[in-house]
Amino acid sequence: MLRAAGHDALHTLDLPGGNRTTDAELNALSLRDARIVVTKDADFVNSIYLNHQPYKLLLISTGNIKNVELDALVASQLSALVVAFTTYEFVELTRSTLIVHF
Predict the structure, then answer these.
(1) For all residues of the chain together, what is the average pLDDT?
(2) DSSP 15
(3) Which among 6, 36, 55, 57 is least surrounded, fewest beta carbons within 10 Å?
(4) Cis before residue 54, ω within 30 degrees of 0?
(5) pTM attached to this predicted model
(6) For residue 4, what pLDDT is reported?
(7) CB-neighbour burial class of residue 29 (10 A; exposed 0-12, middle 13-18, buried 19+)
(8) From CA 37, how far away is CA 34, in angstroms rounded?
(9) Is there a domain that residue 1 lies in?
């Protein structure tokens, strides 16, 4: 969906390690290529607060959600996300709001 909207996006399945790519490898890739990590994995929250890694973080805090619903949610907030990431390093998307952390 992000690619279709014109964004240069990678999925872990696009990487040599696939879904076995470690958080440390994702952080390194993010920093090297100035990429935003999009995840539901709260481990990245500690990493960004303690180590300022990854480069930028979008935490999806929706709980269980169908892919079609997640796509619709991201699509509805995409413009706001782009604006938020011009200023902030850590943004969280819930089912009802967009939260900027810093």
Answers:
(1) 95
(2) S
(3) 6
(4) yes
(5) 0.93
(6) 86
(7) middle
(8) 10
(9) no
